[in-house]
């Protein structure tokens, strides 16, 4: 049967994720040392798991309210005030979703009309462009630059903005580059956003993984920006809760109300067990965040130094758990580098161009692995480079 | 910074000074100096390999002896502890709170050997009131390390993000 005629043309034309390709090859090979995953290596802290188990033992197995449990929405608002000094109302400004991804998808579908332009800084996580397209928007890519440590500048926005531009996506702290926007960086772009009357989707899923003494900043805390921003966050990266599938959106009541409508028809409610665990995480999880951040930070410094010592220059990433070394000195393209490294040394990294053309010449390296694992991988990469030179 | 250095050394004392310096955001010279001062202060008492002797052919039997001891005036438990530590069969001595006083970890060629050591050398000591011997069958976890590799779970992370 010819299924083509039954399929939506936009989804047919959507390319599968470029990250997937290398992972599939690597998973077929033996003794691969991977530096390619994008989730914490820690298990969810025990007291958080226990809260989930307790809720199951008590038979709390029903749907939650569509927006998420009131107790959880209250905790999210308390947390956001405490950590980022932004006030949201639990009744109207929060939607609990199935991971940050659902929140991104819902926000895009509730904001975009046919032909609306969406500014997407790249390199960035692979979902924004396809989800914008599926939501009838028109993705417009902003190529951030290595010389700016992949931060977004007001000039770069000005270059791409048109009278059709409706939305700007802010993917910081950034996957794959580890780039981070300071308060000053955000203030600089806020002026342009105001000038062109843009709305913002700020994906702050990695906000708690900020290094170098920088206090995490939410874009909504920049003056005048709260009213034109939907903040996306969640529990996956912060509390090592990826498999629980729980995220949330914070924003103006008018936007959240529309997203809630979509969520209620398409999803109903986020997983109940995960919500009970998340309440415990927000109440008593600060020390867990601190511990994991310190562990990531040690690995980050080790890996950044190692890459710079090897001659694969790498700016100091201040967020997430990725480094983005430049591999141009090898004369190879990102894909060639990743492929050769995988086949000759069984080390898996992700080519930078999987995150947009501006990632060409770089590879994404995750340090969400034990130090022993990272050291073995670095040793092999060093051997690989030595053999390349011959 | 001090405690994190100790934690890293306990995790793996074969990290190089350069690796430790990178992880802790300092210099190798600073690490050297810190380690030296820990050694001088007696905080770091040595560097052992963690060996799973069960995998070494012909290796010894091991036991935990719970000793009840009469403490000496002035010297408390130190005197008897020092005498017990001096036996080459003894791998560890801890002073305990609870039903007994000293936990003594002992190795010997065989279970018989350990039993004879307890009967002939430990029990007859002046201040020893009783000795209760427990033979160790398997060490599952020691010094934070999974000795039998039971928990070596496969990396199950397969989602690409």
Overview of this protein structure:
The complex is a heterodimer of chains A (390) and B (161). With 390 residues, chain A is an alpha/beta fold. Chain A has 2 domains: 3-44 and 287-389, Aspartate Aminotransferase, domain 1, CATH 3.90.1150.10; 46-285, 3-Layer(aba) Sandwich (Aspartate Aminotransferase, domain 2). Helix content of chain A is 42%, strand content 13%. Chain A contains 13 helices and 12 strands. In chain A, strands 2-8-7-6-5-3-4 form a 7-stranded mixed sheet, sandwiched between helices. In chain A, strands 9-12-11 form a 3-stranded antiparallel sheet. In chain A, strands 1-10 form a two-stranded parallel ribbon. In chain A, strand 3, helix 6 (128-134) and strand 4 form a beta-alpha-beta unit. Chain B has 161 residues and is an alpha+beta fold. Chain B folds into 2 domains: 2-40; 56-137, 2-Layer Sandwich (Alpha-Beta Plaits), CATH 3.30.70. In chain B, the strands form 2 sheets. In chain B, strands 2-3-1-4 form a 4-stranded antiparallel sheet. In chain B, helix 2 crosses helix 3. The longest helix of chain B is centred in the N-terminal third of the chain and has 13 residues, at 28-40. Chain B is extended. The model of chain B has no long low-confidence stretch (mean pLDDT 92). Chain A binds chain B through residues 17, 19-20, 23, 27, 34, 36-39, 41, 125, 175, 242, 294, 298-299, 301-302, 305-306, 371-372, 375, and chain B through 4, 8, 11-12, 15, 19, 22-25, 155, 157-161.
Principal-axis shape of chain B equals extended
Distance between the termini of chain B: 33 Å
Q: What's the pLDDT, averaged over the residues of chain B?
A: 92
Q: Indicate the CATH architecture of the largest domain in chain B.
A: 2-Layer Sandwich
Uncertain parts of chain A = none
Q: Helix segment count of chain B?
A: 5
In what range is the share of β-strand residues of chain A? 5-15%
Quick description:
The complex is a heterodimer of chains A (390) and B (161). Chain A has 390 residues and is α/β, with parallel strands linked by helices.
